[in-house]
Amino acid sequence: MTGKHDPINFLWFIPTSGDGAYLGSNEQTRAPEIGYLTQIAQAADRLGYSGVLLPTGVACEESFVTAAALAAKTERLQFLVAIRPGTASPAYYARLATTLDRISNGRLLLNIVVGGSPAELAGDGIHLAHDERYAHADEFFTVFEELLEKGVASYDGKYIKATNAKLGFPSVQNPRPPLYFGGSSDAGIDFSVGRVDKYLTWGEPPAQVAEKVEKVRAAAAKKGREVSFGIRLHFIVRETDEEAWAAADRLISKLDDETIREAQERFVKESDSVGQKRMAALHGGRRDKLEVSPNLWAGVGLVRAGAGTALVGSPKTVAARLREYQDVGIDTVIGSGYPHLEEAYRVAELLFPELGIARDEQRHGFQTDFAKHQAFGGGSHGGNLKVVSGS
Q1: What does the DSSP assignment read for 341-359?
Q2: Alpha carbon of 352 to those of 143, 318, 322: distances in Å?
Q3: Gap between the terminal Cα atoms of the chain
Q4: Which residues, by range, are in coiled-coil regions (predicted)?
Q5: How many CB atoms lie within 10 A of CB 163?
Q6: 217 sits in which H/E element
Q7: Which of 16, 71, 292, 323 would be 282's cystine partner, CB 3.0–4.6 Å?
Q8: Strand pairing report for 296-297 and 291-293
Q9: How far apart are CA 39 and CA 251, in angstroms?
């Protein structure tokens, strides 16, 4: 790519399992109650984020229900909501998806989640080995996509049997909402390139992401398809690099070694995810090995499953690192930070100007005091201060 980069598509995260100011601590935690989640969604809607990811799992509030509640409180925000094949039939998920797409007026994105904890999947009635889950998912989405395209589907497969399944109403988006997918195994990649619109990776170093992007592109080309690419990252952005690294240290300042050990053992025991193994290999559970690539910090992954890395630095530094990912093919970021409400503001106010992403008031040309520039004065009786010099 040339030195010019288009503004990256930036989504945020809705912490439906809870939020907090410290990792691995019960201090300053926040429950995932709907009022708080609404605050985050509405902030993201105003600040210029294109959408939000809602996670899935037994520790999370149900994503379709939560998205429906948040859609009613927002205007432009898209909702990336999970479909887990096997937890319900393709016909039922088709009804959920098309209803939410209509309720939100076409603001639904669908995240295919096949992997995870085998024990959790067994609790949901899914008793399939790792690679077999993708064979099952392929049959599932054969029915799902046909229903959204035609309104009727029949299928007699090894895992899925549907006899004259019907869908009463179409989605707003034609023929269906976009499909996203993240998975690092060969079986996951082979499944995804035949169906999805956007392939997601967790925040590995740029060289590793580049290898994965090329692997996925080559697999998609063999099937005559093209996919686009996104990355899931945490962000710790401050006005200076020094402040950002201090904030990273603070985030794990109440995290003890025993908690780290227990978390790492649990990840190995409970997950068969290839992507999780790749995340853990970046740091090996060691506090002294956390900067795994320039400004890419793996401290989140000491105790958090899934996405475990954060970009840390000043706005200019983090923007430069993001451009390295853009150079290898990434066009979408799904970001997060702790706590998610405050960090949504920090990322938008500090980083977005470096990325060329317009906030809500900029989109609508909002100006104060008939377009005179002002310096914030604290809201006293005198109001803000007019800036009469050249800016």
Answers
A1: HHHHHHIIIIIHHHHTPPP
A2: 40, 10, 12
A3: 33
A4: none
A5: 8
A6: helix 206-222
A7: 292
A8: antiparallel
A9: 22
**Which residue has 């980083």 as its token pair?**
351
Task: Give CATH for domain 9-358.
Answer: 3.20.20.30
How far from 95 is each of 54, 176, 264, CA to CA, in Å? 19, 12, 38
CA distance 356 to 112: 30
pLDDT digits (tens, 9 = 90+) for 187-215: 999 999 999 999 999 999 999 999 999 99
Beta partners for residue 310, in sequence order: 234, 297
The reported pLDDT for the residue numbered 163 is 97
- Please report, as a single letter, which amino acid is at residue 175: P
Q: Which of 124-128, 164-168, 289-293 has the highest mean pLDDT?
A: 164-168
Q: In DSSP terms, which residues pair with 181 in a beta bridge? A: 112, 199
Characterize 249-269 residue by residue with b for buried, 16 or more Cβ atoms within 10 angstroms of its Cβ, and e for exposed: eebbebbeeebbeebbeebee
The tokens describing 137, both together, are 């998912």
Tell me how far apart the alpha carbons of residues 150 and 153 are, in angstroms, rounded to a whole number.
Answer: 8
**Are 365 and 56 contacting, i.e. CB atoms less than 8 angstroms apart?**
no
What gap in Å lies between CA 259 and CA 257, rounded to an integer? 5
Global pTM? 0.90
In sequence order, what DSSP letters do the residues of 106-164 get, joined into one string? S-EEEEE---S-HHHHHHTT----HHHHHHHHHHHHHHHHHHHHHSEEEEE-SS-EEEE
Token pair recorded at residue 105: 């007026």
CA distance 267 to 182: 18
Half-sphere exposure of residue 44: CA atoms within 13 angstroms, side-chain side: 33
